[in-house]
Amino acid sequence: MKKLLKYQKYFHKMSEYKEEIIDHYKNPRNMGDLLDADETINESNSSCGDIIQIKVDFDKDDQGEGLRLKIIKWQGVGCAISTATASMLSEKAIGMNKKELEEFGEGGVVEMLGGDINAGRIKCATLAYRGLLKVFENK
To answer: Which residues contact 139 (CB under 8 A, 6 or more apart)?
Structure first.
């Protein structure tokens, strides 16, 4: 019992992350269509069948770093992790340019999800991130 009390603060933190993931899964943010989007990409995870379409509008970066994400809308079908991540990233990545998104990295995605993603779920967790990186490829 003493050992459990020692780690209780970590269990509480994990519970908070799980609640946030469930909330984003059940109530996804920025899900929908964006007419006349500056860029549209489709991304899929062939290992589990998750698919996502991301549409974005850009703003010019005042600091000479190219373009910044102004609006992110997405639609897709997937597991709780991929859906929650798409929702969370659609909020987190607003205002980021390509360099900042790359610096955020897959590690930032895992941390955003609470840092406890098993190897079998990493492709689900990073599906939307990989898609967001692709929106910058033609820019």
So the answer is: 39, 58, 66, 67, 98
